[in-house]
From TrEMBL:
The family this protein is said to belong to: Belongs to the binding-protein-dependent transport system permease family. LivHM subfamily.
Membrane topology: Multi-pass membrane protein
Annotated GO CC locations: plasma membrane
Entry's Gene Ontology molecular function annotations: transmembrane transporter activity
Keywords attached to this entry: Amino-acid transport, Cell membrane, Membrane, Transmembrane, Transmembrane helix, Transport
High-level lineage: Bacteria, Pseudomonadati, Pseudomonadota, Alphaproteobacteria, Hyphomicrobiales
Residues annotated as transmembrane: 6-30, 37-53, 59-81, 93-116, 136-160, 188-212, 267-286
Protein localization: Cell membrane
PANTHER family: AMINO ACID ABC TRANSPORTER PERMEASE PROTEIN, BRANCHED-CHAIN AMINO ACID TRANSPORT SYSTEM PERMEASE PROTEIN LIVH
InterPro entries (alphabetical): ABC_transp_permease, BCAA_transport_permease
GO BP term (any one): amino acid transport
Name of the protein: Amino acid/amide ABC transporter membrane protein 1, HAAT family
UniProt keyword Lipoprotein, yes or no: no
Amino acid sequence: MLAQQLVNGLVLGATYALFALGLTLMFGVLRVINLTYGFYFSVGALVALWLARSVGLPIWAVVLLGGVAAGLVAVVVDGVLLTRLRRTKAGELPSLMVTLGAVLALYSLSAIWLGTEIQRFPFDFVDSSAFEIGDLRISLVQILIVCVTFALVGLLFVLLHYTRVGLMIRALAENEDTARLMGINVDAIVIVVSFVSGLLGGVGGVLIGLNFNAIQPFMGETMMLRGFAVIIIGGLGDIRGALIAGVLLGMFEVLTASYISSSAKEAVAFGALVLTLWFRPTGLFGRKEVKRA
């Protein structure tokens, strides 16, 4: 049924959008290609799984704390790996290489510690009840995923456009040197951006884990391709574009899996990425930068 697949696509696309929002915020403000971002996705899901199993916290608490844990990891990783590169204005390629090595090490350590087997939330942790409208079935978990996503998107919009911190974040995104001259504590704002980006990625990991009930340390790897596809399709650094592109990608994947082949859906993100780079490199909402002499 088409309506059911569209609902499933909206739910999946919401998690893609949430994941990509943190990635586009990190790139748009800090100007770094941080490949450890996929690890934050895994951290959020793994911490949530541990809290559900060992501590017995309710679902709203594991979503929140999983995101907070990922945000704290993001702050530590940025401080250890990228602060010196940023201060020396090393550019994007050094950050790419450093975080590539870091993410391989982090995935390896987590696999050694936790194993590579798929782990699942306790059987009764996720409420399986659902609303049914004719042949359309919408589970409570799906409603939770969509509500959490749009709530966080709304909070991010308010933070960026209606708070003093958001004004400083936007100033840093424009020009770091000018932001410093204006008296902005750039190091503190970098910490805020790293935490918020990691939190969004971590919550995305928890929501994907709840949706499919399948969690393992390498789950962030496959999300990175989708994350890059979303931010390029939507436009680099454009939050509105990341939200719309994430939802569209999720719907295209679900429709492809339903009406063509489940194995073909893995090519959707790559195909959309390539087509965007061929025909509209700036993305749906991106703007060409005007170079001045």
